[in-house]
Amino acid sequence: MSNLDHNPTETTCAATPSTTPTTELIPGHEVALGGIRDTTTVHRTLPSRTRRMIGAFCFIDHYGPHPAHTHPMNVPPHPHTGLQTVSWLISGHVQHRDSTGRHQTFTNGELGLMTAGHGITHSENTTPDTPPTLHGFQLWIALPDHARNTTPHFEHHPHLPTDGTTTVILGTHNGTTSPATTHTPLLFLQIQLPPNTTHTIPLNPHHEHGALTATGNPTIDNTPLPPGPLLYLGTNRTTLTITTHDQPTTLLILGGEPFQEEIVMWWNLIARDHDEIVTARQAWENHDPRFGTVTGYTGKGTRLDAPPMPTTRLKPRGRTR
Ligand code: MN
């Protein structure tokens, strides 16, 4: 996934964690994935005007469900730094290629986790043989200072721990730990429930959490949560109760330790200050080996150009806007 706003504004990706349990509905907005015709749109709930991060999660896109043949994914080669991308499908499949030479197609129930570290290039697209419905999520995780310049790599986890209800995609939940590599204490769960059920899960009270509905119409802590908005849940919760109604429900829970570092997110790059962003942007525009090359991209469009830098210097800011 790529942030393809024509004039991306500086995003100081510092959280303002709530110190108490809360239920704050973040509506999100629709974003076209670039100017490419016949491609998909996404519903983006992070970053938002009111909240920048949940734990180290700093970007959430939800796409579909829609027919893959009319809303295919075509994201040409583009760079990332200082973050991990988390690809999680509800249905359909996505073909990933990156500058480490990795070529991997993944489908629902399989985690695609890309660690950009110091710099990587990747592309993402559906192919003509894709299943008929495309529905999924992409989240970005800010890497902490000690890991943000790590060697780029891609992990595919087709078999994640599950008890049939809860799948541990990232982190540790109720004594079960995902095999995926993370660099700050965080959590990403998928919970699948039948209709007319009440289900309570334990949560780490020192973490902040959020919830996203993929399918169904559940009530989370007395708040109805249809697909679309992000529900911010704050910290200091030891449990969370989920109630389903007339539909089977697939719910995602994300969270983590409130992120303490100030970071600047601009376009597809995360850094700590203006000069680091300028350096990374210039390296991309100069085809510098820092980002490598993707070969074999079969989707529409070609290597994305970086947008121009804003006319003012990007400044790391405090935790509040
Ligand atoms: Mn991307």
Ligand list: manganese (II) ion
Biggest sheet strand line-up? 3-4-5-12-7-10-13
Provide the gyration radius in Å: 19 Å
Write down the overall mean pLDDT: 92
Inertia-based shape: globular
In terms of DSSP E residues, the strand content is 35-45%
Tell me roughly what share of residues is in helical segments: under 10%
Largest sheet: 7 strands, antiparallel
SSE order: EEEEEEEEEEEEEEEEEEEEEEEEEEH
What kind of assembly state do the chains in view correspond to? Answer: single chain
Number of strands: 26
Look at the helices and sheets and give the structural class: mainly beta
SSE blueprint and pairings:
Layout: E1 11-12, E2 21-26, E3 29-32, E4 41-46, E5 57-67, E6 74-80, E7 83-91, E8 93-98, E9 103-107, E10 111-115, E11 120-125, E12 133-142, E13 153-157, E14 166-170, E15 172-173, E16 176-177, E17 186-193, E18 198-202, E19 208-215, E20 219-220, E21 223-224, E22 230-234, E23 239-243, E24 249-256, E25 264-266, E26 269-271, H1 274-285
Antiparallel strand pairs: 1-25, 2-22, 3-4, 4-5, 5-12, 6-11, 7-10, 7-12, 8-9, 8-11, 10-13, 14-17, 15-16, 17-24, 18-23, 19-22, 19-24, 20-21, 20-23, 25-26
The structure holds manganese (II) ion.
Manganese (II) ion (MN) is lined by residues 1-2, 78, 80, 85, 122, 268.
